[in-house]
Write a structure and sequence with these properties.
Elements lengths: L4 H15 L14 H21 L1 H19 L15 H9 L10 H20 L4 H12 L1
């Protein structure tokens, strides 16, 4: 009989403890509860909307750098391929600094990844779906898919 995600997580944790190979650097993060994942995903979904706008200049700049890098790579000069710039993610970083977004709450397993992804997409779609409740609900559904 296959193990559930929680049983598999517990079994792996017990095996690591018994083997004594778990050090401070390789220690697996504690599994967060589904409700913690859900709450954190709501905050990340809200932060994603202003970040989408704030990250646009960096994304456009990176597109130009990628074009130059592609040409340089095709010309046989991979050493001229530029590194892409990191997105600033101002709203997410502000949420982390204020404690609204907890970076230690990390989804583990398929179920928690689904909760995280669908909630973030749903919140972002709800916020940007359009005018009127019906259009916002449709935006939330499309955003979560």
């Amino acid at each position: 009989m296959p193990l559930s995600e929680d049983e598999e997580f517990e079994l792996l944790s017990l095996e690591r403890e018994k083997s004594g190979k778990q050090s401070a650097k390789t220690e697996a993060p504690k599994k967060s509860s589904d409700s913690a994942i859900f709450g954190n995903a709501i905050a990340k979904g809200v932060a994603s909307v202003p970040d989408m706008i704030g990250n646009a200049p960096t994304n456009v700049y990176n597109l130009g750098k990628a074009a130059v890098g592609t040409v340089a790579g095709l010309a046989g000069r991979p050493d001229l391929m530029p590194e892409l710039s990191q997105n600033p993610d101002f709203a997410r970083k502000a949420g982390e600094a204020t404690g609204v977004i907890n970076p230690n709450v990390v989804p583990q397993g398929t179920k928690q990844n689904l909760i995280d992804t669908l909630t973030q997409g749903g919140v972002g779609g709800l916020m940007t779906g359009g005018s009127g409740l019906a259009k916002r609900l449709v935006g939330a559904v499309y955003g979560s898919l």
